[in-house]
Amino acid sequence: MASELCKTISVARLEKHKNLFLNYRNLQHFPLELLKDEGLQYLERLYMKRNSLTTLPENLAQKLPNLVELYLHSNNIVVVPEAIGSLVKLQCLDLSDNALEIVCPEIGRLRALRHLRLANNQLQFLPPEVGDLKELQTLDISTNRLLTLPERLHLCLSLQYLTVDRNRLWCVPRHLCQLPSLNELSMAGNRLAFLPLDLGRSRELQYVYVDNNIHLKGLPSFLYNKVIGCSGSGRPVSSLVAQKPPGAAALPPGTLSPVQRAHVYDRLPQALSLERDANGRAAPGEDNCEFCGLLLLHPVSADF
User: Helix, strand, or coil here: 18?
Assistant: First the structure.
């Protein structure tokens, strides 16, 4: 296996490959062959998913200076080291399903970063320097131990998709409503008791998921027709929304957007169209989401 690995890396070096796949290699240490001599100067995408790595080398940026995408999904990495901040061209970083307890402040130096995935780790907080990621479009920090969202997160002006499912959040900072590009916000499976009154005021924000927040007592008026999956919050949507504003019609069944369908089919085991009577009412006893017209059952985690 070691000789095969060395051969793969040697060929990549000689032929100036831009992509290198080292997934499922049972690697416990970062391959020295990758760091040999000048490294792989032409490499742009490195895939090292599902290995047993525990750390990253300090000279990573020196040996792989043109790295644009780094995939380290499903390893045993505990700390995002300071060295990561030197990968100035990095646009995509996936550290999902590791053992992360700390993300270093130097992550804020990744000014080209567009996609950051830190799901399924042991993080209790993120450094405020996350707010320095001006190009960040996707942030997935689901299934961690976060009590609060990162300070200065509202400064990520390009952020479009924010996923914080299955954490320990009890409130949403009001400054989150200032994100001008935010299109999808998922906060399922937390401890939310209320939401900022301004949440949903932006026309850009179209999809908000609040499944399985059993203490949630109501929804801001701006979220009418934007909330998906409320049936999992421990009470039906009708009990969360006292009264709809005039002209706020529910989405009819079968009109889900691609983002909504991804939410339903990727995160839930079943999504059944409701059978309705002649008056359009759902069958008795069914707890359903009147906004998307689907019966949503038991949210589960997914491998993103």
Answer: coil
Percent of the chain topping pLDDT 70: 75
DSSP string covering 163-232: E--SS------GGGGG-TT--EEE--SS------TTTT-SSS--EEE-TT-TT-----GGGTTTEE-GGG
User: Which are the contacts of 169, defined by CB distance < 8 A and separation ≥ 6?
Assistant: 146, 147, 148, 149, 187, 190, 191, 192
Residue 276 pairs in a beta bridge with 282
Residue 50 C-alpha from the chain's centroid:
19
Tokens of 41: 């100067």
User: For 201, phi and psi rounded to 5 degrees?
Assistant: -65, -35
- Output the CA angle 102-186-215, nearest 5 degrees: 95
Both tokens of 207, joined, read: 């999809």
End-to-end CA distance of the chain: 28
The pair phi, psi for residue 163, each rounded to 5°, is -120, 120
| Tokens read off for 44 | 């742009």
Predicted TM-score of the model (pTM): 0.77
- Geometric angle at alpha carbon 249, from 245 and 251, rounded to 5°: 140
Contacts of residue 247, Cβ cutoff 8 Å, sequence gap at least 6: none
* Digit-coded pLDDT (tens) for 43-87: 999 999 999 999 999 999 999 999 999 999 999 999 988 889 999
Provide the Cα torsion 174, 175, 180, 186; round to 10°: -50
- β-strands 138-140, 161-163: how paired? parallel
**Stretch 208-230: mean pLDDT:** 87
Provide the 10 A C-beta neighbour count for residue 165.
23
Rounded Cα–Cα distance for residues 187 and 165 (Å): 5
Distance CA(40)–CA(94), nearest Å, equals 20
Strand partners, 186: 163, 209
